[in-house]
Every structure is written in structure tokens, then in C-alpha cells.
Design brief:
The protein has about 475 residues and is α/β, with parallel strands linked by helices. It folds into 2 domains: about 220 residues, 3-Deoxy-D-manno-octulosonic-acid transferase, N-terminal domain (Rossmann fold), CATH 3.40.50; about 190 residues, Glycogen Phosphorylase B (Rossmann fold). It has 20 helices and 16 strands. A 9-stranded mixed β-sheet has the order 3-2-1-4-5-6-7-15-16, sandwiched between helices. Strand 13, helix 16 and strand 14 form a beta-alpha-beta unit. Helix 5 crosses helix 6, helix 12 crosses helix 17 and helix 17 crosses helix 18. The C terminus is likely disordered.
Amino acid sequence: MIVATWEGNPVSILLDVCYLLVLTLLSPAILWVSWRTGKYREGFREKFLGLLPVRDNDRPCIWFHAVSVGEVNLLATTLRRIKADAPGVDCLITTTTKTGYQLALKKYANHQVSYCPLDFSWAVRRAMKRVQPNLLVLVELEIWPNLINEASRFGVPVALINGRISERSYRGYQRIRFFIRRVLKQFSCLGVQTEEYAERFANLGATPEQIVVTGSVKFDGAETDRKNAQTEKLRELAGLYEQNRVLLAGSTMAGEEQLAINAFRELADDFPELRLVIVPRHPERFDDVARLLDQSSLRWCRRTRLEAQSRPDVQVILVDTIGELGGWWGVADLAFVGGSISPERGGQNMIEPAAYGAAVCFGPHTYNFRDVVQRLLKEQAAEVVNDEEELCSFLRHCLNCRSDAREMGRRAQDLVVANQGATIRTVKMLLELLPPSFPSAETGAVDDGDSLGSAVKFFDPRLGHERRSA
């Protein structure tokens, strides 16, 4: 595929100037936050100078960029599948945030992990020279023009996996379509979750040949077994007995913890077996939530102090750790998915609690997961709650009518299982972009009975939906 790059072009210089201007304007706030919380202090060499690890072998290398915790978690099934199908391929995982970096180090110890360079031309150029990848893979929607352009200049194919564009982002990109179109042309392949997202990419300038509808990898990464090792360990640590009913408020934002606390207090006297687990979305808010719990008169404990106690007699647990939410969802009978009450956030991943068969609810603002929400609501496998009163009503019904709650959870779990398979299609798409000198016959590829060719779906604008490959 022939792509247009802009080596020596004023576009790259203009981008650098714009980035520097924004960085200068934001520097007082960045310095203040760095001083108060420690954020932004790590990764200077990688972010500003592009000093990523130097390749020391000639094996094929795929560079995955996952911006933060959610995208890092999402890579798990893809990396496992690549290891099974192509064990001779090296993988580099880069991330932007400190929390994402720490989680990647812990989760992918067998792979190279680094901070990603910021989108300054000199940083991404040096990084590309040092890493020399055979493929650059961006997760969900990471459009960094200079990084993508440098990859194209070096002859490195660029792919997007689990791609999506929210309604809000789509409206913004339409305003600069003339520029986004040029960036999208440099992708070799755009693996997207749904037909709707495929249409949005096409409307922004991607060609039908570039777009592949793979489905959402998030369905594949969702655990369905409540007796998995991590969940069992957390259940034991938290002192949760068989008779306990657990409400988990996960990925919560400001205001949502108070909502969950108020709902729990409303129900606690009528349902003494009920326990509340709160998992805030951002680590810097752990102490803020702790202060709310101090004021609540409830018996509570931090997750980091559980190991020092034996079967703690508490009503509420505040999870002040990173990367454990997937395991905690497994203890939940009732699930409130945060980031959904305020219109600024757009929701968080509700697939994980649905996969465990919890009775799931979330607020009205879930545009980041519009397709998943529509499917859950269509199957009556989740509930929308607009405020504290509706949250209490939903929870009370589930606690009083356990058979209804179990049936809702079963429908949610069935939906997740029925939508699995995107990882196979995604990995097939990626491996086909590696050099011809690395044939699949030499990779130790595993044939698990799936007809991969017929599973990959290409977008066809003439049909208004995807078409299956031959």
C-alpha cells in the first residue's frame, strides 16, 4: 500500500510548534500536579527524547501502544494469541501513563515495556530508529500524526486494533477531516469493533480496503469463572462469606462513590448481609474516597490493609490498588459501572461484570460503550439508573427478588460468550502484515478449528455493512 508521508514537510514542524505551545501553556498546571501527586515525573527520557530500548536481535517485532490501564488490560488476549500462533515474534508494549506502565510491567513481564514517546517528531523518529519494529499497532483510537508518519517513512505498517470512535470524537474529527483523512491513509489496516465504527472511519477518509470489522477484543478478555484464582484470593482476603451479597461500584468517578455509599446506607439495615466494594477509576482519588468513608459512619477498610487482618469485620472495602478490578468483579452479585452518571465521562467497561453474571447497572451517559450498552439493554441484561433513587430501587429489587437478579446476570453472561472470537480475527489480521520472510508455517501456529479466513469481515460501503472475506 502506498502512503503519503511528510518528511521535511511543514506539517511536522507545525505539529511540533503546536505541541510545544500547548505544553508551555499547561506547564504551570503540570508542575503543580507533579509536585502534589508525583504524576508526570517518570519516563522523561522516553517521552521527550525517544530513548526506547534498542533492538538486539533480528526477530520480527510488533510495537503495541496502549495509552493507559484499560488499553493495557485489553492487550492480554491478543498477546497470548500471538505467543501461541507466532512464538518467534517479539512484542514491545508502550504506554503513556504511570499507572499503565506499572500495570504493563506487572502483567507482561515476559515482554519489553516502555513509556511511549510524546508525538514530537524528533522523539518518535529516534524511537523508531532504536526499536526498528516490523509493525506498529495502536489500541482503540490513538491517532498520533508524527508517530504514524515516522512509521510510514520507515516502511513500517501501521494497524489499529479494537478501533472505535465515540460520537463526541467523531464530531470533533469531522471538523478537521481534511487532516484526519491524510493520517488515516497511512494505516495499513483498521481493525474496528462494529459496523457503526467502520462507517465513521470510512466517512473520515479511510478506504474500504483498510477497514476490517473484527468485533471487540474486550469480550474475549472477560473472565466468566467466579472461582478463578484471583477472585478466590480476594474473596478470602475480604472476608466475604457465601451468605454475603456484594455490591461493587467499579471505575467510579467523583460523585459516584457518594452515590454508592448513600445507596448502601439506605439498604444496609434491611439487608445486613450486604457488603459494598468501591474501586475508584483514578488512584489519585483514593484518599478523597477514604475521607468520604470516614464521614459515613460505616465500618470500612482499605484493600492494602486487608492482608494484615483476618476476616475483617467491615461493611465497605475501598480498593486502593491498580489492576485488580477484573478479579474484584468476580465477587459482585450487584454491579454499578462508574463513569456513567456525569455526561463528561461516557462510561466504563461493563463487559467484565456482565461476563461474571452480575446484575449490572450504570448511569445514562455511556456513549463510549454505546454498542455494548445497546446489546445489553436489548437482551434485558442490564439497567440504566439516572440517580440515587433509581439506583436504590434497582438494588432493592435485586436483593428482594434474587431469581430476577440471577436471570439478568445469566442473560448478560450469555451475551458476552456469544460475542467472543475477536482476538482470533485480530491476530490473523496482524500476522498478515508481518514481512513475507516470516511465513506462518514457521511460527508454530495453532489451528483450533476456527475458519479464520471466513471469520474476518471487511467493510463494504455499498452494502452499508461488512462483507465476509472469501
